[in-house]
Amino acid sequence: MVASAAVQRLKGKTLARFGGRSLSMYTGMIDEHQWRKDFHVEVEDVEQLELVEKAKKVDPGRVANFKKWMGETFGPYEAGDDIQEKQIRLHLALKDKCLKFGYDMVGLKCLTELPKNYVSGCLTHALLNDGNDAEGDFGPIVCACENDNNGLL
Length: 153
Prior knowledge:
By secondary structure, the protein is of the alpha/beta class. The chain has 8 helices and 6 strands; from the N terminus they run αβαβαααβααβββα. Strand 4 and strand 5 form a beta hairpin. Helix 4 crosses helix 5. The two termini are 17 Å apart.
């Protein structure tokens, strides 16, 4: 009965995978047809670079307001200003994309490219799963680190 209820809640949901399989982890591999057949979940692959480019264009005013909120909400942040700003930009870009395209679940591949070329996705994982940030409540968007699709499910 519990499994049936879970499948009903998943019906019609969309998973967006940003960046593909990470570090050859098997949990990043799924049979999309099986997910569609068994769970009624649509799977979309989105280019990671597209997300980084969108992050670079996030309005500086949004970033400043977000940074202020983080300080008030979480206290001191142990990263440099550049890293913090990029983390915020990545979060806002991913959240905006999810809300625009109706993604219910996302997987984000970080290693090795994302931290090496921009910033890691740790902040966005925490905040998307919580469903609330400096801009208010947007409802949780299930987010899996390193595109751990099976863990996400």
